[in-house]
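ZP: hey, is the zinc ion complex queued? I don't see it on the tracker
AM: it wasn't, my bad. submitting now with these inputs:
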Amino acid sequence: MPKDKPFPWTCGHCLHKAVEPRQWDFEEEHHWHGRVYVVRIDQLVIPTCSHCGEKCFSMRVSNQIYEKLRELTGETLEEFHRMDRQLLEENDV
Ligand SMILES: [Zn+2]
């Protein structure tokens, strides 16, 4: 996902050039070490297609969500990345 491309972006779902930044009260459940954490970010800016409603989770958005999850779990950044890699490797199998 190109980071600094000017809006509107082309939607990967419906191919309309209609993706603009939009604010959402974001809420998502994450499973971490066998526990469930609810990540809530008010007025998170997510590039969203105004044609079909598809949300585009750019690296920038994902990083904000991960940072919030890290806050909630109280993990160090190192541990967090280590676990993240482990999960990725497990998914590869
Ligand atoms: Zn679309």
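AM: back. The mean pLDDT is 87.
ZP: great, adding it to the tracker
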